[in-house]
Design goal:
mainly beta; 1 helix; 9 strands; three-stranded antiparallel β-sheet; 33% strand; elongated
Length: 153
């Protein structure tokens, strides 16, 4: 069984845009958080898998000294959910890491989106990059506006 397009859209809106999901539960529906906070985008050297945490196969500061997860606000300014088939959400601004100035470098093959700025926190979504990203000295990893696409199907 899969979720309907509407359920996927509402779920993505709730998680990424901190939107309300009307009609579920009481009269208020599933309400947004009072303090929305951020989601954190990470880079991974291989698939973190369905049971992985956000640090599973994550690029580390030993390999890329300046690496840190990127915070993106849980808001309509950070993400845009669309009720397509399947429902999708994309980033509204470029997601840019610091240029690699030192470290041994690594190849990122996957991205992750989770709830923590560091550590083995919950990984909510992950996916394979369209093309591997070889991170070496002088490289600035980035997802352009709309380039990070998450689907709910």
């Amino acid at each position: 069984m899969s979720a309907t397009n509407e359920a996927g859209f509402q779920l993505l809106q709730l998680i990424f845009e901190n939107g309300a999901w009307a009609g579920v539960g009481d009269a208020g529906g599933l309400l947004p958080s009072a303090t929305a906070g951020s989601l954190y985008v990470s880079l991974h050297s291989s698939d973190p898998g369905e049971t992985g945490t956000q640090d599973t196969n994550e690029i580390t500061t030993g390999e890329y000294a300046e690496y840190a997860r990127i915070a993106v606000a849980r808001s309509a300014a950070g993400w845009t959910a669309a009720s397509a088939d399947p429902a999708t959400v994309t980033n509204d601004a470029a997601i840019t890491w610091t240029v690699m100035g030192s470290g041994s470098g690594r190849t990122a093959t996957h991205f992750g989106i989770g709830v923590g700025s560091s550590g083995a926190t919950a990984l909510l979504f992950s996916g394979q990059l369209d093309a591997n990203l070889v991170i070496g000295v002088g490289v600035t990893p980035e997802f352009a506006i709309g380039a990070l696409v998450v689907t709910a199907d």
